[in-house]
Amino acid sequence: MPSDTMWREMLGQGAALAAALPVLREEVRGLPERAEGTTVWAGGCGDSYFAALAAKDAFRERGIPYRAASALALAHEEALGPMQGDTVYLLSVSGETLRTVEAAERLRQRGVATVAVTATHGSSLELACASSLTLPYRSLSRATPHTGDYLISLLALVLVAECAQPTPFASLEAWLGDWEESWGSTCRAASRLAGEWRLRGNLYLLGGLGDEGTALYGAAKFHEAGGWPALAAETENFLHGMNYLPGPEDLVLVLGGAHRGAKRAVEIAEALRAQCSTFAVLDRSRCPEEGTATGDVLRLSGGVPLFAFQAAIFLQALCWFSVSPRVKDLEQPLAERPDGEVRRAVQRRLLKEARLFL
Prior knowledge:
358 residues; alpha/beta; five-stranded parallel sheet
């Protein structure tokens, strides 16, 4: 397959989201209602876990008690995890992620209601859960850094939050209706930053609250693209020692869209410029241009829940523009590494061939 598969999938995300929106809205309305005094949980592994973290702001906006957790934590932290009466949304596009299926089995044994969020009918996860929410999406390739399936997973969780009140998140339709302009401006900003940085050093992605999930997702794209060095951290924890790591060749990118996070993102980006390159991605609705730095900043139209989608798309594009000139085929990102097959074999052994639950 040509190296533009990731690009073509990115290009198609607007149409895919627009088509999925009414379908998922209808599906969510058919799920059991949350009982008063209970908590909604969501989690999974990899991008599915990151989507659960990134959905926090949508649930906070609607006043719904919400927790995001990894599949491992959902399966094994019984005293700290979901209780009877709570609902747990378990995400896995394939429906076959070992640890997520294990979480579903263990939660069912504890009498906790579970909902499988997957694109695969009849998957192990769907069979292990009491209910299911089917993602109406098929990616062009599961070998390239994942793009559309992450946004569809995030959309499903945002619509679960939306359903708690009769008023929909109308900004979703408005954004998707203006997709071409939004996509174009985001790509131009990502291309410009990638051209300035040129993968000279390490990438550090910072985000607090829901933005932490987006930061983790962005770092994962660089990992999936062949193991490029990208580290994600919770914004405030980064300042307790990890801030000593970035040097003149490195780039620190700070996300400022989550609750009260935009002005702090500007403050951190401005201070770190003394030791490395920095860039801030901000929610314009939370941090207007007045009184903030004018350079090295991307202001997205934002608001809840749009910023989580828009920032993720920017990070997808940053990955593409940074890595694609250096990797011939992003469906085989390790092909040019001498030990690429060894690395693939290790992952395959740990994720695909292992069958033991903890």
